Amino acid sequence: MKKKVAFLLLIFLAAFSFLFSGTPDKKGPNSYCPHQYVRLNTYMGVPVNCDEFAFMGAAAHPGYLLQQDFQRQNRPLYVVFGTVAGYLIYYSLHPFHHQIQSLIEKKFSGQFSSQETQKAILYGSIYMAYIILNILILFFSIVLFEKSINMASGNWKNSQWLFYAVILMLISNQVTKSFFWTVHQQLFTIFTPVACIYTGLFIQKNKPGIKSLSILSLIPGLLLLVYGNFLLLLPVILFSYFLNCRKEGYFPLFSFLKNVMLFTIIFTSPTILWIAFLKLNGISYYNHEISKFRHFVWMADSINISVHYFFSAFGERTIDFVKTLGCLLWSSLLLSAILLIPTTFKYRMSEKRYAFETGTTALIIFLILLFSSFLLLIGSYADRMTFSLAPLLIFSAALLLNKEKLSKGVQTGFITLILLIHFYTVFFNAPHFSETFFYQ
């Protein structure tokens, strides 16, 4: 319990520090947004993303989900969360609505009507609900991260201060800086890779049966109606199930393929049911990312023009994707520093330090390839999306740190490095190569 409180405190301190980060750069696709920053006082403020207005409006009026071509129709559960939690907060505050309304009228000198101030209270309640969700996303990212470390390398062997520093590295970054205080789904780019690590290790360690794996397949299937990256949990489940079958030495191909089909059907069933529900109401399912940004289907579009055009487009997109890898510089620096411990700090490490268990090594390699392929083939690129690779690098770094007890000097060095990275992130933009694709 004490550790969970420490996690929440760490989230609060990191998020609070980002209030001092200043106004966002006027670059990237968000530059067209008329409201990019809300100043709280001389020194503090919160960034605003244009998507915030669409999400909050849909949460206030969930009937928008049943409108043809509504841009958030493929993420209904994220909207419904805002509706349920937002209205719950709104009605819980009902005894104080008059006082809140008076404060608003006093602050803005009667610029708004009574109806408008009531609307402001509702939207403020929805905003609070989504900020609570952001806290929960980071909290469960930390919890699953810790559990994954324990499963892969045992209990933490070094000081708790170093452990909390590694956790800070996970949650203190440009994504949290830009999206914690706004209504947006981007923090899931931290949670989804951690969830993939935990799911893969859990299946390998516990070897759940077909019934348990079926239930496990349903959970990310539901979460797919929240955020598209949860799609990646299905191949993780299938890959870990494959490793378990191989370890058991019993691998009937027909039975394996039958179960793979079962897990896939269960995983996709929530989305299929949602599409069917819309169809029954006379609405054609709309996926904004595919329809507008041509996610993944750009490959079919290109091939339909010509094979030569496809390879040309693929080359251009590969370059665009590589440019977004700048978001991984800090996590790569941490991992490199750990690998250089023997020469940099003259700290003797045994060979077993570099030896993960075969299943853990296979999972990390698989996840890096899986996320890289997904991000490359998606067709539109931004540092904030590519950042989903960073938790995989940070997890690898944590495993290396946890292989054996480090000297106090080495531990202090890593804590100092991570704190310097945090304060740099607070006051400066993270290093990046993709000016065009970098989202503040």
| Largest sheet entry | 2 strands, antiparallel
Q: What is the beta-strand fraction?
A: under 5%
Radius of gyration: 23 Å
End-to-end Cα distance: 35 Å
Query: Low-confidence parts, pLDDT < 50 over ≥5 residues?
Result: 343-356
Helical percentage: 55-70%
Widest β-sheet, arrangement of strands? 1-2
Word description of this protein:
This protein has one domain. The chain has 440 residues and is an all-alpha fold. It starts with a helix and ends in a 13-residue tail after the last helix. The protein has a two-stranded antiparallel ribbon. It is built from 20 helices and two strands. Residues 343-356 have low confidence and may be disordered. β1 (37-39) and β2 form a beta hairpin.
Strand and helix map with partners:
Layout: H1 2-17, E1 37-39, E2 45-47, H2 51-60, H3 76-92, H4 97-107, H5 114-153, H6 160-171, H7 174-179, H8 188-206, H9 210-223, H10 233-248, H11 253-280, H12 288-293, H13 298-305, H14 307-323, H15 329-339, H16 341-344, H17 358-377, H18 383-386, H19 390-401, H20 408-427
Helix pairs in contact: 1-5, 1-6, 2-3, 2-5, 3-5, 4-5, 5-8, 6-19, 6-20, 8-10, 8-17, 8-19, 9-11, 10-11, 10-17, 13-14, 15-19
